[in-house]
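Journal club prep — side note

Before the paper discussion, L.F. wants everyone to see what a predicted structure for a comparable chain looks like in token form. Sequence:
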Amino acid sequence: MSEAARLRPIEDHDWPAITTLEAHTYSGKGLAEGPETLRTRANPDTSFVLDTGGGLGGYLLALPYPDGSFPDLTRPEAGACRSGNLHLHDLVIAPGLRARGWGRLLVRHLTAIARPQRYERISLVSVGATEGFWAACGFRPHPQVALPGSYGPAAVYMSSEIG
């Protein structure tokens, strides 16, 4: 990581940039959720941003969620859930910073902060043909978990145990 870049908790002033990155990444795939819904996917203890010193370079949103389940993309979360499973809902790296290892760094950071919080595993839904990236990060597919069409045709539920 460069000296200027750092991972830090999400602050209120980050949300416009998070929303812009999310819309840029997912609008063309029909997966953009919008600012109000997106905020409900961010547990403050397990969500953070990549601050490049000159702006927001990316973000990761994760929240406790039952194993084998996933957020409904059509509505905000109703409330907090208690679970040994942490669901990585979204990870986005700004286009100019992709393919530099930032995504893997964010996944490693999430695992490092999840362990002392006593999470047992991290789950996610791979969308847009990203299954290879997630597999390289240690996630394995669970094809028996049925996903709604709202996640797209190539969506795959995956998880990784926290060691």
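L.F.'s comment for the group: Residues 6-161 form a domain with the Aminopeptidase fold (CATH 3.40.630.30). Keep this in mind when we get to the figures.
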